[in-house]
Amino acid sequence: AFERAEQLAPLNSLLIARRGTLVAEAYYRGMQPHADTNIKSASKSVLSALVGIALAEGHLDSLDQPIAPFFPEHLGENADPRKRQITLRDLLTMRAGLESTSFGNYGAWVTSDDWVRDALNRPIEQPPGTDMIYSTGTSHLVSAILTKATGMSTKAYAQSRLFGPLGIAPPSLQQDPQGIYFGGNNLALSPRDLLRFGQLYLNEGRHNGRQVVPADW
Question: Partners of 17 in the beta sheet?
Fold first, then answer.
């Protein structure tokens, strides 16, 4: 497996754990065990874990709560009623119905002066809760909601509730023009950090005997 992995550029690492223990690892093309690397949209899975924790702690009411109360300046009473129906579940499953901020729209979105406003101002292309439209801006809205609901930045909340308990040092994470940490991209973690995160889910949310993420999540 390691010999084959070495030929699979741009794969840079292969780690194998058995029964919770790292038993073999190999690194290619300059990668190191503790070197942080941009995990791109895998960042969205980390964000999802934080939502599960926030729900368990009572910072959020339900996956089916509308997001409009978190954004009264953008989704007030005069906003498109379809947008006011968007729920937290819709954001997590990419079924908000809003035009994508990814692919050809990504550059314009990340160079805008307000990422939250830009994402919410996108036209409705599908009824919320129906078809999936992949959009990193949709995930960034989740980060904005976490920031408001917990009273902590997404990065601080992640360090306190997830990374710290997993023994992961504070990672590098970009902020938008309003200071909200990026919810859907550009989180930097090491291969061993990612292994810990994967094992957390394999172990029903537990790490070293501690329930970090709720088991039902």
Answer: 22
